[in-house]
Specification:
The chain has 314 residues and is of the alpha+beta class. 19% of the residues lie in helices and 44% in strands. The protein has a 16-stranded mixed β-sheet that branches. This is Septum formation inhibitor Maf.
């Protein structure tokens, strides 16, 4: 019987080689895309994959949160309002896929330094309550895994959540018609919210220069500004980190302890407050009052209110 094909190399081997070559080219293309994507993300942010120092572990993995209170002078509706701000930093296990706090320890969990940043102040008759949560991985300084923000006052409440996946995935709810229920995606960029936590891990890793930054979710809500990346000029000088947004006529200056644990001493945020003829350029200020380390989640009895007095929150 005659054969129309006469080759010495078995067909299955030829097919395997061709498949491997195509696969390698495909993988190389994927690797190149991934590399380009990585460079785009980190070009202004040096990555440090070193294990946390013993000093860091002793401070942050002692089973307690760091709670710091601040005297708050908050710009709102063209006037300065007095109130209190609190920054609560704590490490916890985080599920990277579900992007929620883990109920149990697991090798696949990610260790995050979480920041719950709260503000309470009154605008005349009615109160404001603001909270922003940032879940930032301890092992690197690329981006927060998740950021959420909520704001409550007597007109209603609003909520925004960012999940860090292939892109930034945003879910947003508001009682305003123009802001309504939204789901959208953003290209990855520096998040102002994450910088407050990145600073506590290693201030030298903070990005500087001319950057694209997504402003804090709080600012976006208070000013009804579109959530996206804006041009920013950023500087780091000893114990001061400054961000200037020319497009927004807004600046943020964070003052911190230049020595570990790099605690935040206060901040100033200048922007236009109010609307129409009542709009004025004002500066929100926060000045450190007290700080404690506490496993606050277990301090829920009436007798534990003494800790609020220690933080000057009464």
């Amino acid at each position: 019987m005659k054969h129309s094909i006469n080759i010495k190399t078995p067909f299955w081997l030829v097919l395997g080689v061709l498949t491997l070559v195509c696969s390698c080219k495909s993988d190389q293309k994927k690797d190149k895309l991934a590399l380009n994507s990585e460079v785009k993300v980190i070009e202004n942010t040096p990555i440090d994959f070193k294990e946390p120092s013993q000093e860091f572990k002793a401070y942050w993995y002692a089973g307690k949160a760091e709670i710091t209170s601040y005297k708050l002078e908050q710009a709102r509706y063209g006037e300065i309002r007095e109130g209190k701000a609190v920054l609560i930093y704590v490490t916890e296990d985080f599920l990277p896929k579900k992007q929620v706090k883990a109920d149990n320890q697991n090798p696949n969990n990610v260790s995050v330094l979480k920041l719950n940043a709260t503000k309470k102040f009154n605008t005349g008759l009615y109160p404001y309550s603001i909270m922003q949560s940032t879940f930032y991985p301890v092992s690197n300084n690329q981006h927060a895994i998740k950021v959420t923000s909520s704001m409550q006052e007597w007109c209603g409440h609003v909520f925004t959540q960012l999940n860090n996946k292939d892109e930034f995935e945003i879910t947003s709810y508001s009682y305003f018609e123009s802001e309504g229920d939204q789901n959208f995606k953003l290209d990855k960029a520096v998040l102002e919210n994450e910088l407050w936590t990145q600073l506590r891990i290693n201030p030298k890793s903070l990005p500087t220069g001319n950057l694209k930054i997504i402003p804090s979710f709080e600012y976006g809500r208070l000013r009804h500004v579109k959530l996206k990346a804006y041009n920013a000029k950023v500087t780091l000088l000893n114990d001061t980190y400054s961000i200037d947004y020319p497009e927004l006529n807004r600046s943020l200056v964070i003052r911190f302890n230049a020595s570990f644990p790099y605690d935040i001493l206060g901040w100033e945020e200048t922007f236009k407050s109010g609307f129409g003829k009542n709009a004025k350029t004002l500066t929100t200020k926060a000045t450190k009052l007290k700080a404690i380390k506490s496993a606050y989640w277990g301090k829920n009895k009436n007798e534990d209110e003494v800790l609020r007095e220690a933080l000057e929150l009464q």
